[in-house]
Amino acid sequence: MTKMRVREALRAAMIEEMDRDPSVFLLGEEVGHYQGAYKVTEGMLAKFGATRVIDTPIAESGFAGLAIGAAMVGLRPIVEFMTWNFSSVAFDQIVNSAAKIRQMSGGQLHVPIVFRAPNGSARQVGSQHSHAMEHFYAHVPGLKCVAPATPADAYGMLKTAIRDDDPVLFFESETLYSLSGEVPDDPAFTVPFGQARVAREGADVSLISYSRVVHTCLEAADALAKQGIDAEVIDLRSLRPLDEAALVATVSRTHRAVVVHEGWPYGGVGAEIVDRVQRLAFDQLDAPVERVCFLDVPMPYNAALERLVIPQVDRVLEAVKTVTYAR
Amino acid sequence: MLRVPIPEGPDAGLFRVLRDDGSADPANDPFLSPEQLGAMHRQMRRLRVLEARMVVLQRQGRVGFYGSCTGQEATPIAVGLALSPDDWVFPALRESAIMLVRGFALTSYIAQVFGNSRDLLKGRQMPSHMSGRSVNQVSWSSCIGPQIPQAVGCAMAMQRAGKREIAVGFSGDGATSQPDFHNAMTFAARFAAPCLIICQNNHWSISVPTAKQTASATIAVKGRAYGVPSVRVDGNDVLAVYVAVRDAAARARDGGGPSFIECVTYRMGAHSTSDDPTRYRSNEEVESWARKDPLDRLERYLRRAGLLDDAALAALDDELKAEVERAIDEVEPAPPPSREQLFEDVYASPTWPLLEQRAALSQVPKAESPH
Fold this sequence. Notes:
The structure holds 2 protein chains of 2 kinds.
Chain A: E1 2-5, H1 6-20, E2 24-28, H2 44-48, E3 53-55, H3 60-72, E4 76-80, H4 91-98, H5 101-104, E5 114-118, H6 134-137, E6 144-146, H7 151-163, E7 168-172, E8 180-183, E9 197-200, E10 205-209, H8 213-226, E11 231-235, E12 238-240, H9 244-254, E13 257-260, H10 268-280, E14 290-292, H11 303-309, H12 313-323
Helix pairs in contact in A: 1-7, 3-4, 8-12, 9-10
Chain B: H1 34-59, H2 74-82, E1 88-90, H3 98-101, H4 106-114, H5 147-160, E2 167-172, H6 179-190, E3 195-201, E4 204-205, E5 208-209, H7 210-213, H8 220-224, E6 230-234, H9 238-253, E7 259-264, H10 283-290, H11 294-304, H12 310-331, H13 352-362
Parallel strand pairs in B: 1-2, 2-3, 3-7, 6-7
Antiparallel strand pairs in B: 4-5
Helix pairs in contact in B: 1-11, 1-12, 2-9, 4-12, 5-6
């Protein structure tokens, strides 16, 4: 095991895969000379040169389309968006081309490609930099959507993503880039998609989450422990495919669930989780499932207001009170 | 040897080979052999026959959709003949037939129109969005334009692999308003990608004439701002398109980077089988373009050269009509694709939700499902 930050784990995964497979290359805005807007790609231009670490013009749909065309003929691009917010400019290329080329071509062509970027809220960057874009993309068959919360998962899941023969959308979090943790030294280590992780075992209530707010849930679980409530924290890691068995298993243990995620409450991944829980584990439930997400407003800039919109420990605790009928 | 002049100033005129009297401009003539000219003519004539027949099939309710390229046959045929077999084609709506020129079977092409179990695409993609891996042709995107930057990316992949293959991306005149057209120009020039971007300016984007689409004096001029050598070619002159594409392809193969070719032509038919052009354009305009018909232009040249007469043309037409009818008869009776195939090719291997859905659908009696 080596202790590293999420950004280092992501970089290590990309470097190892680019060393292993010459068809893998990286492109995006500021990924080369600037070393990445969040320094994830630091040193990669010097190591691999400008034909494999490509600084692109500012045109997300352009370089997404470029990468899709290159992927169709045998390359394996990693596309870094500066943030997932800006992927909205490339939405058509991702949804109408990347997701559908295998299907529309009758399996004659496919697009092994990774789109990766920070996602969700950061700190005081306003409504256009704070979207949780996974909800839009997880709707689409043909795409895989994953959102790791730890350095080990960032490393293992990015390697899985790069080796996958389908388009993988990899949702990072700016606020987690400096999070430190143990990462296995084995270069063969990968984390399969579609398998949730029990981040903390518990018996009384399930906090179901992914990405940044897994850590909010872990904090909430510590607070609940002091109140004598034993919370289980589930880190989904993979949103499409979704680990339904893990959802059923945790609710069967605790009989109460709170779903916590960034992004708005209308539709999306949280609604999907609640659907699975009520449909597949209805008899296990002792209370309706609660959700803690963004308030249903565009993100404000003001720090005090922003704090109200983003899921916080206190809102998780309130939701736990509701599902345990403690209020 | 580059014959197509690249003007520095505003576009003046068109690059042409075939003159109105049926002679060829010797300065620009590619001097194709009689066999090459015969093959070119046969392909154009077959496409004319095929498109008319496909539109009728839609009118008869036998297929769902068709977007014909009638009046625009010169560009797809010239491009198909000018490219090398390993080059990649990213067509737009009216270039599907390039694959026929490059060896794709007519029966397989027509099977895509029916979308039945003979269709390599398994009944998933609309007609006039044909693709075939065997001939390096990729389906275009209905959203208008996304295939053009994809062609540039494909070309960059060829370049990186040290290959001499190139990629060709197509648009119509309307698509040159789309961000992806401009993206393609930006990236193609910035990375000197070995690609051709070809616009068939047929003067109409459904009901919007080019003059209402853009205030740009020409489409070709749009490429020059990006640093892409751009030419304007008579798109109803199959020899002119052939020369322009061959020259630009040679330049791309030799590391000379991308080119943009505007082929000026006219959509003689409707935008698609969902459209009625008599509602928005005049008969006079259509008639004036009918007099510049690309097949007539080539046939006048062939007759003048002693390579074609009335009897030969009539015999060829009979032969081509019979070929198309035989292909339809062979393909049409095939059953729909199996319903289990719905769940294939969503991912490399089916995820368990797909397998569950497939199992559930298999329990539905076939009489209650379409097949």
